[in-house]
Write a structure and sequence with these properties.
single chain, alpha/beta, Nucleotidyltransferase, domain 5, 5-stranded mixed sheet, 3 helices, 5 strands, elongated
């Protein structure tokens, strides 16, 4: 009778590949997140001491003085802006949207896109303003 001897194999797991992957993912998110929250330069309306300044994680939709719509820094039509944000909602159902309306922008243009976003099912839609300085 012959007995076979099994060598004990080293059952440790190398964490280096997992750490590498997580570091790359962290770097990707750190680079892409600011791109989602940047927008065009606007003269925001002043709204007292209780102004909404927006969150860093909200999608920024801007309406300039001429009535053009922007998602981030990309100019597009109102319908295309709503479609783009609806596509983004597929990845994050609790998406927050901040509308940046220039102080000289048409009130109807700002409220129109806000209404279309509400109709599309977005519950967290806000208007971004500046604090008044004395």
């Amino acid at each position: 009778m012959s007995r076979r001897r099994f060598k004990n194999s080293d059952a440790t797991m190398s964490l280096t590949p997992m750490i590498d992957v997580m570091t790359v993912l962290l770097a990707v998110f750190m680079v892409t997140t600011p791109m989602l929250t940047t927008g065009i330069d606007l003269n925001l309306p002043k709204a007292g001491n209780s102004a909404l300044t927006g969150t860093d994680h909200a999608i920024q939709i801007s309406v300039d003085a001429a009535g053009h719509y922007y998602v981030g820094k990309t100019e597009m039509s109102q319908e295309d802006a709503v479609k783009r944000v609806i596509a983004m909602r597929g990845e994050n159902p609790d998406l927050t949207i901040m509308i940046n309306g220039d102080a000289a922008a048409d009130y109807g243009a700002v409220m129109s896109i806000m209404g279309k976003l509400k109709t599309a099912g977005f519950q967290k839609v806000g208007l971004r303003t500046q604090l008044e300085t004395d």
